[in-house]
Specification:
Blueprint (H helix, E strand, L loop, with lengths): L6 H14 L11 H6 L2 H34 L4 H14 L1 H5 L2 H26 L4 H30 L16 H32 L4 H15 L1 H16 L5 H50 L4
Helix pairs in contact: 1-7, 1-8, 3-4, 3-6, 3-11, 6-7, 7-8, 8-9, 8-10, 9-11, 10-11
Amino acid sequence: LFCSLGALSRLHCVRGLASMGGDSGPAPRRSAKQLAAIPWQADAAVFAGCSFLSASAVVPVVMGVDKSVTQAAAGMPLGQALKVVLRDFALRPHRVVCSIPYCMVMGVYFLTYGANNLADVVSERYDLGSTTQNTMKLFGATGAYTTSSILKDVAFAKMFSKASEAATEVKRAVPMTTYGTFLFRDALIIGAGFILPAMVAGGIKSSSSMDPQTADKVAQLATPCVMQTLITPIHLFGLNLYNQPVATRNERMRAVMKTYPEATGVRMFRFLWAYGVGGLVNKELNQRARDWTVARYASPSA
């Protein structure tokens, strides 16, 4: 939706996707001689591992916030829901890690980071141009995130739709309006994470003496968080459409506003963690992976 705004917007989208992966630009490519010595199976395994570990750094926070906000939208106090999540992580971490909600969120971010990292590796091995590489990232990572995120949130709505029966899935069809609301929400998330930060950074640079790289980082982290003031009520509205199939407009507005302030705060932290910690971890792991494959297979002593 947002990425159809033109060539400038596409460039901003690609930069945003790179930021989510922790990169400020394309990863340094290994030489053709080095790549010839490195088995593609090793690359596939190593970078899949990077995607998994990067997702692992993000999932506990994201899953905890998403589950708690979903339960709060269904009637459970958000503070209580967060306490239950923290207690489960502290007392029964093995059960949490093996639970369906945890695995769903892991799937979202493994696919997202995986699509981003795969685009880098394929482009490097086949010597694809930067335009092709960026297009692969744009459609691959955006498509992976949007599709898996919507499916995950719909499943969460069904699993946690009753605060008193948080572990019981309610056998009720999810209305198309909920799917549509989540799709609109993710379009705004793409804009908040991939388009607006470059514009905000430009404004910071032109109106202050802040270092350009610092301005880019501040904008990339702050913009998705601030945009939660707009995105969170849309997310809560989509959940309300499922929780209350029949309700007046005023009833829906009251239900959304009831949890809006606190839900916005925790979702700000969620996106700061995903874009900040997750991105930095993915960047560091990918660079270490490249260095390791060169040292293992392409060094003179290998």
